[in-house]
Input
Amino acid sequence: MEIPDLDLQLKTLPSGPGVYQYYDKKGKLLYVGKAKNLKKRVSSYFTKRHDNARTNLLVKKIVEIKHIVVDSETDALLLENNLIKNYQPRYNVMLKDDKSYPWICIKNERFPRVFPTRRLIKDGSEYYGPYTSMKTVHTLLDLIKGLYPLRTCNYDLSKEKIESGKYKVCLEYHLGNCLGPCEDLISAETYHDNIDAIRDIVKGNFKDSLYRFKTRMKQHAEAMEFEDAQRIKEKIEILEGYQAKSTVVNPSINNVDVFSIISDEGYGYVNFLQLSHGAIIRSHTLELKKKLDESDQELLEIGIIEIRQRFNSQSPEIYAPFPVDLGEKFKVTVPKLGDKKRIVELSERNAKYFRMERFKQTKIVDPDRHVNRLMAQMKSDLRLSVEPRHIECFDNSNIQGTNPVAACVVFKDGKPSKKDYRKFNIKTVEGPNDFASMEEVVFRRYRRLLNEDEPLPQLIIVDGGKGQLSSGVKALDDLGLRGKIAIIGIAKRLEELFYPGDSIPLYLDKKSETLKVIQQLRNEAHRFGITFHRNKRSNAAISTELETISGIGEKTVIELLTQFRSVSKVKEASEKALAEVIGPAKARIIYNHYQQIK
Output
């Protein structure tokens, strides 16, 4: 796949958090960085002269920009750390050492210790994290130890040694920081109940622990122990502000390839995340052109084989969003919940962002291809018999039944065609009746197009639900156009699409391009109609005020407003100034009228 030029790559970057990677013309990784807003951060490299010569040299070498989208800044920080340690890019300095982020370890022991560590040892112990700050770890451990006293010694507390009386309680027990498991003063079962509660806290599920904290705080307050109550309150606030662990890294997910796919009418986009020791070390998205309307399963199977061969992956297990047939030597898992499910969802998000970028790039470089793809997508999504190259959308506007008007906006090839927009004054309907108004304007619009032998649209959209749609359908029936033009209604509340004769609405994906075009049509019709309605209402109000003056007609009103521009200036004008425009007789009438009001 040909690499787009840098300007195009920059224009189509997403605005969310993530990690960016710079590559040179040989495909060598130069630099890895993190960003809260990928588009702003990466663009900043190319929009200014840097004081650092090393940075200027880096920018000159960049040919390709890749990125991985994540959920938060914390995730971006952790992923940046993993990638730098794995690839050691030439221009990264900060994170090349062996120091890694801290974890909380629950040791695999009869009476487990809980402590911070930067080393993961495969001895059956549990590791939670990583955390972006050791301060966070110590805060969390302080909270845990304040609620659940734990041992800190490294003795072998086997049942036999405890029963033989080998150990004695230490100062930590007398200070209340330990419950004395070394002298069998707490049972292993009770101790493990506390460990279960600690697991919930470090996983972010601390509802029960918070309840116990709040109970203790109330007890201290009732006993007038306000300093103790305040200390617990501060811990509660810290605990409530603590965020659960990152989905980017999980040590229980080891040596796994994660795949997902997003597809449209012409292409499939297969994303690949490679995990090693629970950390993402590679992300790549492959674009596959459909030849014979292949299914997502077929495309994903092709993509998995191609990507694994390209990167020489030997991972024994594959995570996928649905079952795929890769032969017996591969273990394919379809995760249903937890971190495994979230990592597949993260892969899907990256596939979607890649697809969006390709669309944006195509729209800039090859607009015809973009339009053709969009029209094919809309035809499929809206269950139409032809591509909707010409769409018209209607909207009614009135406030409490006054000055009812309607608007028709026209889109051709997915873009507004403003020269074809039309305004309608409602002529045959009395009072606020949206249904009858819709029927009138649809009938008038297409009767005129038929009389003038103008081309008809492939799709009509009416702003409203079943009622407005039925009115539009009746107008087409009267003109003999039913079945010749597709017509749908869009309801504002849930963006439901209604079809004639079908009581069940169609719901499109909120992020689909088809829905975005329909929403743009609806919003444009609403804007155009509201503007027309406001102008008409304003003109009516102005005309009414001057025309109520006895002896003043429409022609005189027009002359006055042409000269003075507003009614307020007419009110303030002298009799002489008015006489110069409309003559002394009418000037005296208007001047005396406003003098009496004052």
User: Anything to note?
Assistant: The first strand starts at residue 18 and ends at 23.
